[in-house]
Here is the input.
Amino acid sequence: MNFIAKIREDKPFIFNITNEVASNFAANGLIAIGASPAMSHTPREAQDYGAMADAVVLNLGTLTEDRGEAMLKAGKAANEKGVPVILDPIAVGGTVFRTEIINDILATVKLAAIRANAGEIAVLAGALEKAKGPDSMIEKNDPEIAKAVAKKYDTVVISTGETDVITDGMRTALCKNGHEMLQNITASGCLLSSIIGPFVSVADDKFQAGVYAVASYGIAAELAMKKAMGPGTFILALLDELYFLTDEKVKRYKQIQER
Here is the structure.
């Protein structure tokens, strides 16, 4: 499937409840890839947006009580309409408050995908006590840990690290696309979580959509670094490369190993 062409044809509406740090960057990235973003965190409109969206992204970054309430409302409304929901459980286990909200979402909202770094995925699997934040990494991104989380929550898990792991518990793919400069800018993981939204919205096979989204984002980062001089110019170049990305480029540059 030509995912990017389909996204640009359909212009899927992606509702994001995300954090202040990521909001502008994620919105611009979604526009660049061809989607139509909405960024809101008030509980009073979360149910409406969740029901009308083509995908819903729940990002636990700068969590508040209102955001937590809004996420639960949006997720449940999306489920009722068959709208895919993506969860980014930032710093799960870091505080009692955010862990309780994440557990509420996991218990009551059917997720199309969970996107988190390897440390956060390990916390969800019970293999690590807590993740301090979006930069909390563990040495090895173990596919078996990601598979256990995928089976536990019946979802696609995208565990990011030096090599990204994408799995639905049965099928697993390893993606080596990307660039270390992504670690030197704020909200690069948050943008990836949002970018997954339009990919899963246009595909029945959420696993393949996740693989394609991760590879596409990594390729855009690689191409951006060919033009960038540092983190500031990298941000601008990344948005440009997302805008100019094509299915042909993804097929040419993807580094995917399916297991």
